[in-house]
Amino acid sequence: MTLIDPALLKTRLGVLAGRFDVDSLAECDSTSSELLRRAERGAPAGTVIVADQQSAGRGRRGRQWFSAPEAGLTFSLLWRFNGPASQLAGLSLAVGVGLARGLEGLGAQGVCLKWPNDILLRQGDGFAKLAGILIELASDRRGTQVVIGIGINLQKPAGDLPQPAAGLNQAFDVLPERHELLAAVLVAVGEALESVTVDGFFGLKNEWQVRHAWQDQPVQLLADEATPLLGICLGVDNDGALLLETESGIQRILSGDVSLRRIASTPEVRRL
Ligand code: BTN
After folding, report:
1. CA-nearest residue, atom 9 of ligand 1
2. For ligand 1, is residue 59 a contact (CB within 6 Å)?
């Protein structure tokens, strides 16, 4: 498969071409690591690195992200905000809304969101992971720099995986061409980021909630050291915190450093 061609991508970005500065690499360790290095050297907001292959792709919670060159779209986008990171509550959820909007705009069916920032594909009664988002923030006196790494499975990944996985080709009759796909996603994620600048996550909350895969479903929340927390997933609040109805009342989960599993049986939760 040939690499993403930045000139061709510009034609797909249309009037927004000037907002993004895209570099396409055959291989790198991780598009996010490479972008972090370039950000340190002063790369402008809107810089995008897309790589055909990553030798050390990174996922959330220290996991690795594997994708075969022909079977995935892996890229990172640099953005900057004027305020501190504390004003960016819900940012990762906003990126999920942007990504879902971009895919749906091309005609994808069955795209759903899972807190804090997984993109799932509805498959019958269940869901399989379609894409992952890794957000890395750094703040200083001038504001907050955000590196947004996105990995989309174009084909269903092969092999043993910790959770069911899907390919974007399963969401379309005919999978869109990769330049068209990347352009649509960049534009939609860019719009979501602008919306966060103006309204915070609040302006996107309803859109997130409408696509929420596990709304009102029993879930188990796993943090590294704690015992799993069982509850009913009530969705998110205006700051993007997960609302979990547990035995001891509604808990507001802020940390993204947890993993969420749907469970088959309804836990004992007293409805308030
Ligand atoms: C996750 O679901 O754990 C997040 C996965 C994020 C993977 C993408 S691929 C492009 C970018 N570069 C990386 O090393 N990671 C992100």
Report:
1. 151
2. yes
CA of 248 to the centre of ligand 1 (A): 35
Residues noted as catalytic: 60, 129, 261
132 CB near ligand 1 (under 6 Å): yes
Q: Which helix (H) or strand (E) holds 91?
A: helix 91-105
Q: In CATH, which superfamily holds the domain spanning 6-210?
A: Bira Bifunctional Protein; Domain 2 (3.30.930.10)
Strand partners, 236: 242
Which tokens go with 139?
A: 């703040």
- Measure 189 CA to ligand 1 centroid, in angstroms: 15
Q: What is the CATH number that goes with domain 218-269?
A: 2.30.30.100
CB 240 within 8 A of CB 253: no
All structural domains of the chain with their residue ranges: 6-210, 218-269
The pTM assigned to this predicted structure is 0.93
pLDDT tens digit at each of 272 positions of the chain: 689 999 999 999 999 999 999 999 999 999 999 999 999 999 999 999 999 999 999 998 888 998 888 899 999 999 999 988 888 889 999 999 999 999 999 999 999 999 988 999 999 989 999 999 999 999 888 899 999 999 999 999 988 787 899 999 999 999 999 999 999 999 999 999 999 999 999 999 999 999 999 999 898 888 766 678 889 999 999 999 999 999 999 999 887 555 667 776 555 554 43
Residues forming beta bridges with residue 229, ordered by sequence position:
221
Cα distances from 25 to residues 35, 45, 67, 97, 242, in angstroms, run 12, 19, 15, 27, 37
